[in-house]
Amino acid sequence: MIVDVNTAVGRWPFSAAQSVTPARLSALLARAGVDLALTSSLDAIFHENPDEDNRRLFRQLRVYKRLLPVPIINPRLAAWRAAVAEWAPRAAAIKIVPSYHAYSLGGANVAGLAAELARSRLPLLVQVRMEDERVQAPALRVPAVPVADVVALAKRHPRLSIVALGTYSREAIYLLEQSPRVRIDVSFLDGLDAVGVLVRKHGAFAGRLLLGSHMPLFYTQSALLKVQTAEATDAVRQAILGRNARKMLGL
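-> structure tokens emitted (251 positions)
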């Protein structure tokens, strides 16, 4: 079973591509051989209060069993606890986008959210970046989440399962070396045989690498090829393609 931990529906406003519906996403993933995908709303990134976007996401995904809803929570809002209470029982994980909702991972509300998710045993997906910063319009640059902040969060909440989405290879190595609880997806890993390099650097890293395509901003096949062509054993490739994610999600 292949599991993609980083997909979304909706429209990215800085792309010429049309809005991606759940039907379209499900069909594209099926064509690529992906069996399950964690799916969020792109629209929720641009609304301070993403509750309506999350509700729409859950409604839309009900008929698409391949797509597992992942709501985006903004812990800056006073009602973030109510949002977690509403979505957590039905969610595969919770996602946060600190750079777009304008807060740091060191805040008190993030600490409260992390503690709540640790108690609920729900993974926290931290979107480190949505785009390569070099392609952003000069007046609309959104900085990446500092990976040192992700490490610090993991150290403060050792029972919390954290997935850092969208890390470059150098950031991934730092995260994997500094925190045994942090997992990463492969979407932004860069360089020749990026997955194989990580696995050869430290064999234990293989258990914390997850397939993540960043679809619809990136092509699903790009992430799949990073794993399928990696200089690694078949067992390692199969773990990254799905077994690691299934273990994290309790599937």
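The chain has one domain: 3-249.
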